[in-house]
Design a protein that fits this description.
- The complex is a heterodimer of chains A (108) and B (119).
- The relative contact order of chain A is 0.34.
- Chain A is built from no helices and eleven strands.
- Chain B has 119 residues and is mainly beta.
- Chain B has no helices and eleven strands.
- Chain B is globular.
- Classes of the chains: A mainly beta (108), B mainly beta (119).
C-alpha cells in the first residue's frame, strides 16, 4: 500500500501568519490527494480534493498544491479556528487508500 | 442535506460481539461507496474497508481482513461494521464516511461511534 508521510508532526505558528504543511507519498498518486481538518471531539472535515480544489464553504486562505509524490497545504493567514490536526489522504487508482499520520497545527 | 448518523457509543467486554450502524439520508444510498475509518485514542485515521451498497462489493484493508465485517441493508439505507470477538485493542472511535463519485475522497463523515472494550 502507498505510505503517506506528513511533516512536520507538530507546527507552531502565530495567528495571522502563514502555515505550510507537507505530505509525501511513497509512490505517485497523480493529483488524487485530499486534505482534512479535525478538531478535538469532532469528525474530520474535507478541505481540499484533487490536490487543489477547495470543498464547498472552505475559505480561500486554504490552498493546496503538488502532484505525484509531493503535496502542500498552505493556510495563508491563520485564524484561531484553524488550529487543529490536518490529514492528507491519497485515493489513487487501487485500494487500499491511505491517510498520512497527521500534522498538529498549534498556536505559537 | 446529506447526513450520516451513527449509532451510540458502546462498551463491551473482550470476546463479545458487536455491530454498529451508519444510517444515511439525503442522497441515493446505492450510488456511493461507504467506508469505515478507525481512530484509536490519540492517534490518526486508518481506513478499514469500503462497500458499494448497490451490489455489496466490499474491499478490506489487508490488516482488517477477517477481523471485521462490513455490510449494508439497502432497504434501510444503513451500513454496518461488525466484530465477532472484540479485543481491547479494538477500543477506538469509528467513523463511517461517504466516498464522492466513483470511489474517491471522503466528502461526508458520520459523527463517529466510540467503542470501548474493557473487562
Amino acid at each position: 500500500e502507498i505510505v503517506m508521510t506528513q511533516s512536520p508532526a507538530t507546527l507552531s505558528v502565530s495567528p495571522g501568519e502563514r502555515a505550510t504543511l507537507s505530505c509525501r507519498a511513497s509512490q505517485s498518486v497523480s493529483t488524487n490527494l485530499a486534505w482534512y481538518q479535525q478538531k478535538p471531539g469532532q469528525a474530520p472535515r474535507l478541505l481540499i480534493y484533487g490536490t487543489s480544489t477547495r470543498a464547498t464553504g472552505i475559505p480561500a486562505r486554504f490552498s493546496g498544491s503538488g502532484s505525484g509524490t509531493e503535496f502542500t497545504l498552505t493556510i495563508s493567514s491563520l485564524q484561531s479556528e484553524d488550529f487543529a490536526v490536518y490529514y492528507c489522504h491519497q485515493y489513487n487508482d487501487n485500494w487500499p487508500y491511505t491517510f498520512g499520520q497527521g500534522t498538529k497545527l498549534e498556536i505559537k | 442535506e446529506v447526513q450520516l448518523v451513527q449509532s451510540r457509543a458502546e462498551v463491551r467486554e473482550p470476546g463479545e460481539s458487536l455491530k454498529i450502524s451508519c444510517d444515511v439520508s439525503g442522497y441515493i444510498f446505492t450510488s456511493y461507496w461507504i467506508g469505515w475509518v478507525r481512530q484509536m485514542p490519540g492517534k490518526g485515521l486508518e481506513w478499514m474497508g469500503i462497500i458499494y451498497p448497490s451490489d455489496s462489493d466490499t474491499r478490506y484493508r489487508p490488516s482488517f481482513q477477517g477481523q471485521v465485517t462490513i455490510s449494508v441493508d439497502k432497504s434501510l439505507g444503513s451500513a454496518y461494521l461488525q466484530w465477532r470477538s472484540l479485543k481491547a485493542s479494538d477500543t477506538a472511535m469509528y467513523y463511517c464516511a461517504r466516498l464522492y463519485g466513483s470511489m474517491t475522497f471522503i466528502d461526508y463523515w458520520g459523527q463517529g461511534t466510540l467503542v470501548t472494550v474493557s473487562s
